[in-house]
Structures are given as structure tokens and as C-alpha cells.
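To close the chapter, one final illustration. This time we ask the reader to focus less on the individual chains and more on the assembly as a whole: which components sit near each other, and how the overall shape emerges from the parts.
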Amino acid sequence: MAVFGGHRRDDNPALPPGQYLTESFPVLSSGPTPSIDMEDWEFFIHTEAGQTHRWTWDQFIALPSQDISVDIHCVTSWSKLGTGWRGVSLDTLFAEVETGFDFVMAHSYGGYTTNLPLGELLNGRAWIAYEYDGDELDAEHGGPARLLVPHLYFWKSAKWVRGLVMQSEDNPGFWEENGYNLHGDPWREERYA
Amino acid sequence: MTSRAIGWRTGSLERAHPLTASARSITFTVSSWPGNDAGQHVDVRLTAPDGYQAVRSYSIASTGAGEEIELAIDRLPDGEVSPFLVDDLELGDTVELRGPLGGWFVWRPEQTQPVQLIAGGSGVVPLIAMTRAHASAGSSVPMQLLYSLRTPDDAFFRDELSQPSATARTTWHYTRAVPSGWSRSAGRLTAEDLKRETLPPEHVPLTYICGRTGFVETVSRALISLGHVPDNIRTERFGGT
Amino acid sequence: MDHLDGNVLAGPSTDLFAFEATTTQCQCQSCADIAMLGQAMVYGQPMGFVARCRNCDNVLIVIVERAGQKSLNMRGLRWLRVADQATNDRI
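The assembled structure is written out below.
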């Protein structure tokens, strides 16, 4: 009798529970890849005081950036280790932002949203990434720029990110509203609500 | 079918034979299977010993009443389910099946509109079900198939489609390599090819297209540019896992 | 990402509806396009089934399946029109 094994699950200590290792970079998207004119691209942070901090593409890539090497974990069970990115730390982007709110809703070109606690975006744990593996980030992987929050399941790392809106409560984003976990820590297997 | 309680049934592998180097026909016996229309699909669920489950949708190649259903599966290189079904599953092994599913990408013998079928690669599976339903019903409605393949070796069901008794004529198109002596060179299916090889808009055919997303997209756009109306085009795309 | 056709919703919707979902006519809340659900474009697998309007990409329906439960969101639909079983569900 043939026994179905699914993708091989390894005992690699770098793998969170229930994850398997992949060398490829699967693409998952809740909608079509948006076409974004770089002339119009912007990244913004909007606060409860009604203030909007904006960066054009040129302003954004002129900010100090970092090389980032991290493991990423998709809720659909694949993990990819040692991925290399270049991007701007959210500490840099939040340097001038004043807010009393503890939560963030990330908004993307194309309408995608995902919610995050502000505390988990700061202190060197999250970036707006615009290069992957030494090249500009492909559109199918979220280019020109995506959120990168590697310590949470990868749906939190919103592709085609456009801006962050501060929120007083942890209101759910797109997948979170449809049954996925509000927080999404892969080490605690926070897959579903 | 009178009940909507579809649920999961157990299918036992009854017969299997290779279709190509990467594909296999697998026929399951499914007790109390209600029969299916041509073009319907079934969800296959596999469960690993640790409880992990994977579900995939496959078109059904067989049609009509009876407790047997035939699937024709192509092995995808990075696939999780298809390599198991093509390479590992043995006679007598069981899988869980949910179906028959879908009512839109379906051809029924009582339909009277001329039918153009267009297959890309393993997208031929639901369409062969339609040619089988057409033959077994003795339908007099015009039905023809345009089958686009990478190479001659990639054909599913070539003998069956080439039989003189086939009621639906098949036109073969090759994108990478052609058989020796073939009059045309290999290349992607173009609007010109479609104009020459498919029923014209004046015949108001109902067209069924099945293949990878890119193929379906290209072909349906070309058909619309030739004057076919979108509501007469039905599509079934398949993805990569 | 490659999308699929609304046909693929037939499986996950079997436990949710007492009718064949893919041949159900519906209207998009956003652009008023009327189509069969089988004509929608489906993204989001394997996280879930995100059915979008063929005309304007508006999200019509989201189904998320997991062991033991399903989540259904239909906010993008103005209405569904369901044919009687006799005409819709004959085999």
C-alpha cells in the first residue's frame, strides 16, 4: 500500500512546528498583481491626529537601508531559510511619527490589508523591502516594495505595500477577517483564529 | 442527482495505465457514486499518517452513470499530490473523493449549440469526457476539438481521439516539436491558427477552453478578437500544485 | 499569480449551500456585472478561495476551509439568483 507523506517535514530546528522546507519561492496572492506606475508610487504612514507622512519612490530609496537575511514561514506550511533582502527599517520610517495607537493596518496597492501590533514592527523586526536576492523585487513577490515582518507568518508581510494606518484596536485585515489568526506567530502555530 | 449532501466518499483504485512519460490514467471504484456530467470535477483528499491533509481538484475523464470514475493526472515537478497519484498509488489503495462537482464547465447531450473544444496539454481531460458523452449519446450537434500540445509524446488518449468512429474531429497543434512529416512548424497557438482550426463566430459555437491560466487567457482573448462573444466561452484554468 | 475559474468553488461550497454554487447567477456589489459564479476569477489558494468579479476584480466571495470549519464571506455580492433544483441539479 502506498502511504501519502505530503511534503517532507524535517526535524530542522530552524523550522517552526508543522512547516516543511522549500528551496523554491511559491507565490500566493489574494488578487491580481497590480500595475504600479513608479511616478505615482508612494509610501505613507497615517496617524490618529490626521497627519500623513509620505515618501515618494526617490525619497524612499534615499533613506538608509539594510541588508537583511531572515527565515520566512508561510501559513500554507512552507518555510524558506536564509532569504536575502534589502530594505528600509520601519524604525527609520517611524522616527518622526507621533502616535498613541498600538496597532497598524497595512494597506497595499490592489486593496489587500493586514493588521499588526506596532510594537512588532519596531526595534529591528520589520522593514519595507525593495530588493530580493540582490535584484529588484519582482512584482509577483510584491515589488516594487513589500512589508517584511519575518517573525510572523508571511501573509503579514503585505506585498505591494502602500501605507500604514494607525488604529486604536487590532481590527482584522483581509485574511484575518476570514478566519486567520490576528497575530500569526509561526512558533506558536497561530494559523487560525 | 437529487441530494446536495455530497460529502467525502472512498474511492478504491481499480485500474491504472500510463498515458505519457509523466501522466497516468487512474480509475477508481466509488460506491454509491451518482454518475457525472461531462466536464465535472472531483476533489481528491489525501491524508498522511500524521493527520496532514492535501486536497486537489481534478477533472473527470469519464462520464455518465456507474460507480467507476477515470481521472488522468499529469505529474507536476514540484507537486505534492500529483507525483503520489502518478507514481505511488497502487491498485486497491483508497483516496477520499468529493463530487461530482461543478455545473458551469459542463456539456450535456441535450444541448443544441455547436461545440468547439480547445485543450492545452492535460487540459484535455474534461474535454475528452465531452467527446465521450457526445459519442455515447449519438449527438448530432457539431463538436470538434483543437488539442494544443508541446510535443507528440505529450498526447493523452491519442488512439481514442484518432479513431475513425470518433464523432468529434480532433485537430492537433504542437508548440515545441512536431511529428515527422508534419506540414506545420511548432509554435504557440495564434489567432490565425484559431481562425483556421475552430468553428467561426457565424456558427455561434459554445467554446470550452481548458489548460493552464496563460493558455486559457491567450486563447479566450484571441477568440473574442475574432468575434466570439464572451458569454459563449467557458473556461477552466488549472494552477501549479 | 495564476488565478483559477469559479468552477473550483464547487467543492468548498458543497457544505455551505443547498444549491450548485457555480451555476448561480450573482451581481457584483461594486460594478453591477451579472455573471455565473463559475465565471468569477479565483485567487488565494491554498490559503483560501478568493472569488473576484471577472469585470472589476472586486472580491465577491471568500471561503476559507480548515479542519472542522469553513468561513464564508459574501460581502461583495449584491444578490444571488438560484435556479430550482429541477433545472439546476440534474444528472
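Chain A has three helices and eleven strands. The longest strand of chain A covers residues 78-89. With these observations in hand, you are ready for the problems at the end of the chapter.
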